Each structure stands twice: as C-alpha cells, then as structure tokens.
Amino acid sequence: MALSAGHLRHRIDLQKNVKTQDAQTGEIADKWVTYKTVWARVEPLSVRDFISAQAAQSQVTARITIRRRSDIEPSHRIKYRGRLHKIVGILEDKESGLEYQTIMVNEGASIDGK
C-alpha cells in the first residue's frame, strides 16, 4: 500500500528528553526538545476501537502515521496541536517495513520522562 502525501496533513513535533546542565548551579535537569517536525496522519481511536482497547487494558488513544524514520524511539514523545502524546508502540508497514510507520500513542499519560 502506497502512502500518498495527501494523507499526511497534520504537523507533529517529535520530541526527546535530553539532560541539560545549569551553567550557574551545575544542576542536571531533564528537558524535552523538538528534534524534528514532520507531516503525519493523526487518527483518534474510534469508539469501537477505544472500547476494544480498554477491554484489552491497552492505553492507546490514537494512531499517528508518518513516513518511516530510523530515529524514533519509544522513550520519545509527540506533540500535536499543543497536546503531548506518549509513544506506546511503533509498527512498521506490513508490506515492506520501509515506507511508513504507525505510532500508537496515549495522550497525556506519563509524558514527564519518568
């Protein structure tokens, strides 16, 4: 299945947690930084999908599809329309594994890097 550019109509920020050091105190702190902004398709779960996910005790609330990247990790998060999403899982496309990725996300849960 080809992923046409027309399906990717949402802009998302890919963020990762980095350690920073305060220049005055030397204190090490965690900070989320955007390392890339990409086009995506953001799909909240349908009511049926959401009920099924709850029955399976899943924490997934949406699917985000992007062109395949090698720099995304489950410890990263996604910012979309000012809301933060924790990455629950990353699925490669089922035909070649090289064209796109579907990222399963949970909005607002455990996004503080802990």
Explain briefly what this protein structure is:
The protein has 114 residues and is mainly beta. It has one helix spanning 47-55, and strands at residues 10-21, 28-44, 62-67, 77-80, 83-92, 100-107. The chain has a single domain (5-107), classed as Bacteriophage SPP1 head-tail adaptor protein (Thrombin, subunit H, Beta Barrel).
Give an overview in words.
The protein has 114 residues and is mainly beta. It has a single domain, classed as Bacteriophage SPP1 head-tail adaptor protein (Thrombin, subunit H, Beta Barrel). The chain is 8% helix and 50% strand. The protein has one helix and six strands; from the N terminus they run ββαββββ. The chain has a six-stranded antiparallel barrel. A hairpin with a 6-residue loop joins β1 (10-21) and β2 (28-44). The longest helix is centred in the middle third of the chain and has 9 residues, at 47-55. The radius of gyration is 16 Å and the shape is elongated. The N and C termini lie far apart (37 Å). The model has no long low-confidence stretch (mean pLDDT 83).
